[in-house]
Amino acid sequence: MDTPVPDTGNPVTQAKLWYWQRISAMLLALCVTAHLAGMIYAVRGGLTAAEILGRTRGSITFGIFYAVFVLACTVHVPIGLARICEEWLGLSSGKAAWVARLAALLILAMGLRAVYGVVA
Amino acid sequence: MSGQALQVKVWRGKQTGAYTLYEVPRQESQTVLDVVTYIQRHLDPSLSYRYACRVGMCGSCAMTVNGVARWTCRTHVAKVVQGNGLEIAPLANLPVIKDLATDMREFFDKWARAKGQFAGTATRHDEFAQVPPASRERAAANAGIECIGCGVCYASCDVVAWRPNFLGPAALNRAWTLANDVRDQAQRERLKAVAGDAGCHACHTQGSCSERCPKQIEPTAGIAGLKRLAARAAVRGQLD
Questions:
Q1: CATH of B6-102 among 3.20.20.100, 3.10.20.30, 3.20.20.140, 3.30.365.10
Q2: B198 contacts on A by Cβ (under 8 Å)
Q3: Which of A27, B80, B134, B150 is the most exposed place for a label (fewest CB within 10 A)?
Q4: Minimal Cα–Cα distance from B162 to chain A, Å?
């Protein structure tokens, strides 16, 4: 006879996690491209900390762009981490969800702090 | 008839066991099933294996040949032999009953769990359903309808190996063909059954299933379709 059916995870939650993963991935594709292009442009002829801060200090554009980047990472990374915990470490979906929440908190806090650090 | 004999390693035992080496005469147009049959008939009658049609229609003879899940009746030795060596093992991701025969119950139980059965409500007194064969849904269903449940895709799937309760490519492909069947009345229940981290959302589109399917079915395409259907249903509040 069939073994007891294990919890497959609430379908609505899983569907939402899926499309938020997709949406944040689209955003990240844009952000990463812009970030790489910006870095390559800025690094021409060498780079100093003073030079970086000269561009970022007081720049609303930088602030908004990188804050959006941090938010996209906050959504995208934890979902992927939870999957990795389940598939490679064998964690239950409950425990993996806690790892995800912790990662989200860390990325959000550290990311926004970094943006503030270079823009303020 | 080629000169050198084949050195064939065959899995003997159950989940634990070992490979035994057999020497098999090489023939022209020899298939791996011919090799296994030769071993059982001439060298070691205690070897257990499955086959039925031996012409690539039933899918019973699927085994792991040199690390890749294949139909052994449709695999020419000349195509896969490494030097003059072959390694033959049972299908992966399934419990081994003995030697090359696996327990396929879980494979078919997952098919049932994915609601892989047609659920219609029309009777003989109703008119025939009119389904245009060229319609988008019917074309999508037809692309996956030829599955014979051989288990090659399931054995090739890394996610099945990592997540024991993952429904798997075959079950999800069948669910997809039914999701595209306009006569079926169980769409809502089926979508609930296949959405979730043991369902379509666990698929990472690595594609081993689509690459290895002997009927050229693409479960990854069907699973991507199920993900889209589930997302749409979730947004419209139709998934609970």
A1: 3.10.20.30
A2: 6, 8-9
A3: B134
A4: 5
Q: What is the pTM of this model?
A: 0.90
Contact B158, B208 (CB under 8 A): yes
Which residues of A lie closer than 8 Å to B, measured between beta carbons? 2, 5-6, 8-12, 14-19, 83, 86-88, 93
B230 at interface of A, judged by CB pairs closer than 8 A:
yes
Q: Do B231 and A14 touch (CB under 8 A)?
A: no
Between 3.40.50.300, 2.102.10.10, 3.30.750.24, 1.10.1060.10, what CATH number should domain B105-235 receive? 1.10.1060.10
Q: Do B159 and A8 touch (CB under 8 A)?
A: no
CA–CA dist B154, B173 (Å, integer): 11
**A26-78 residue pLDDT tens:** 999 999 999 999 999 998 888 898 988 998 999 999 999 999 999 999 999 99
Average pLDDT, integer, range A5-13: 69
| pLDDT, tens only, B165-201 | 999 999 999 999 999 999 999 999 999 999 977 899 9
* B223 lies within 8 A of chain A by CB: no
Residue with tokens 């425990």: A95
Distance CA B120, CA B37 (A): 43
CATH code of the domain covering residue A87: 1.20.1300
Q: Average pLDDT over chain B, rounded to whole?
A: 95
CB contact under 8 A, A11 and B191: yes
Using the 8-state DSSP alphabet, how is residue B42 labeled? Answer: I
**What's the pLDDT at A3?**
42
**Domain total of chain A:** 1
Q: How many CB pairs under 8 A join A and B?
A: 62
- Pairing status of strand B101-102 against strand B6-13: unpaired
Element (H, E) at B150: none
Neighbours of A23 (CB within 10 A): 13
Report the gap between the CA of A8 and the closest CA in chain B (Å).
5
Mean pLDDT calculated for residue range B106-118: 96
d(CA B176, CA B60): 23
